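Example for tutorial group B:
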């Protein structure tokens, strides 16, 4: 599935352009090719959630997938605190474009499961 990272970048700027996390992301000055590569690698991480989505969101494998996701976002985009992660999780499971894209990439129900796993992680940490 081809992702429209340029569209996501515009949406992110509109929604979070005033935040420190967005300013941190902007300071990285990723080229469009780097953005696409990092975005594709991010989507690949959702396959870890897909592999365990028949289990409990608070199971060790699901929680490890959350930790991997949070670390990746922090390393490649911006500092992903638990508060930021919680907001991302809510977006992933909200039923809009993020949900559709995650499910199209990693399998139906993956976004909702990832959202639940992230919620469980943030409650426990």
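The residue assignment follows.
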């Amino acid at each position: 599935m081809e992702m429209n990272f340029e569209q996501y970048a515009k949406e992110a700027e509109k929604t979070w352009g005033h935040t420190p996390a967005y300013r941190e992301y902007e300071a990285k000055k990723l080229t469009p090719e780097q953005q696409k590569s990092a975005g594709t690698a991010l989507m690949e991480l959702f396959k870890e959630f897909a592999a365990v989505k028949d289990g409990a969101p608070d199971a060790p494998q699901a929680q490890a997938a959350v930790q991997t996701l949070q670390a990746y976002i922090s390393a490649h985009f911006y500092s992903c605190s638990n508060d930021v992660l919680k907001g991302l999780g809510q977006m992933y499971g909200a039923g809009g474009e993020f949900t559709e894209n995650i499910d199209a990439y990693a399998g139906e129900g993956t976004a909702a499961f990832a959202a639940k796993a992230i919620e469980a992680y943030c409650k426990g940490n």
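Helices lie at 5-16, 20-28, 32-52, 60-76, 82-92, 97-106, 110-124. Compare this with the pattern of hydrophobic and polar residues in the output above.
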